[in-house]
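PROTEIN DATA CARD
Card holder: VTC domain-containing protein
Chain length: 371
Origin: Guillardia theta
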Amino acid sequence: MEAEAKQLGSDFLALEKFVNLNYQAFEKLLKNHDRLMPHTPCHQFYMAKLRNQDWIRNDFSDVFVALSDCHSLLRQDDSGTANNDAKQDFVRNTKKYWVPTEHVSSLKHLILQHLPVFRVWTGGGDSQLINSVYFDNRQMQLYHGRMDKTPGAIALRLRWYGTEIKSVFVERKTHLDAWTGNVSVKERFVLDEPLVVPFLNGSYTVNEFADDMKRKGKKDSDIQEACKLFSQIARVIESKQLGPTVRTQYMRTAFQIPFDATVRISLDTNLAMVREDCCGYASTITERWRRDERIPVKASEHTHFPHAILEVKLQGDVENPPRWVKDLLESGMVTEVYKFSKFIHGSAVLLTELVAAAPYWIDDVSIRDSV
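Structure generated from the sequence above:
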């Protein structure tokens, strides 16, 4: 059965490659036509029709879910459940890699043979939309702290999942290992969306937050921890005058055996970054905490990243990961980018007048056009 499941995956990858090659061939033919016959251009008209064809428009992510389910049954994995607690903190060793888009499907197929697609949302597909708004001030103190690998350097962000904003996670990431920068802790609590602005401007107090958690039936220990984090983040926002600076948006496919955090892998595709209007002015957070999406974004205020981002998170014996993880990282499909950060990259590209230094990867030839 395992051999049959692998063959199904290989057949799908061959079909996807065939589709992509045909698409590229059509586009090249049309470009050549327009070059040779500039008075009767066809490229724009026929490419618009081509993009509406079912074999181009179809979302094949459900195929990966089905393949994942097949391998999961063979491994006899348990079913996972979402962690809905307000408190969610853990220490992890994380390394990040760039993945050229042409390798994304092959990489997914390789991973799902060992880890199932971990889905905690309703609906189809193997990936979930994630938005994060990162905070900093006009001096970009948090940015430079992360760049300099300052011990205890933090990143603050507001994150939500899916297209409808009901709950917003207030998250703080703290680097613990100043030498390698690979060990960090993430802590977070959750707010209902209407409470985000009152939290940021200080009109929503920690006592009101504790009362709301009690009404939701949360445990006393969780309430205590969440309130501690609430107060700490509120003080940092006020003392450093933090405000929204950069927003990231991408589709995330997560791979993890339920209830087993030994190896967790995420793959982020279609990564876009947008400059926020407030740009570090906490005093302006009176009505909005993120960009008004009805207002068009200027070309200079957004960028699309050309690669997918692979994150490999390990716990336990991080120096000796499973053999298949080593094979994955040595497959030639991924390139490790030490300390890559979406926040740092977005800030360096979109807030050039505020940052004093740019990350080393900014000069990589493969991302030159996006920069």
